[in-house]
Amino acid sequence: MKRKFTITGTASDELSLASVSYQVKSGRTLGPIRPATGTTNWSARATLKKGKNKILVFAKDTAGNQSLIKTLKVNSTGAR
Description:
The chain has 80 residues and is an all-beta fold. The chain contains no helices and 7 strands. The protein has one domain: Immunoglobulin-like. The strands form 2 sheets. Strands 2, 3, 4, 6 and 7 form a 5-stranded antiparallel sheet that branches. Strands 1-5 form a two-stranded antiparallel sheet. The chain starts with a strand and ends with a strand.
């Protein structure tokens, strides 16, 4: 069973942010890199499978520098 999950966060840079992106890892499967909506205040709708998931998030600035990857661990029960 798959379920949509909303994630939100904030990001900052000394100059200007270009993008925030995320990936979902369910078990051994690493999904594609997807863009979040917004930069300084961002949000995304991630699809999670039942069980253990990891959401990896990173930002890029306008110079092309990438932030460290932040990881959020989520255990989805599949219940509504």
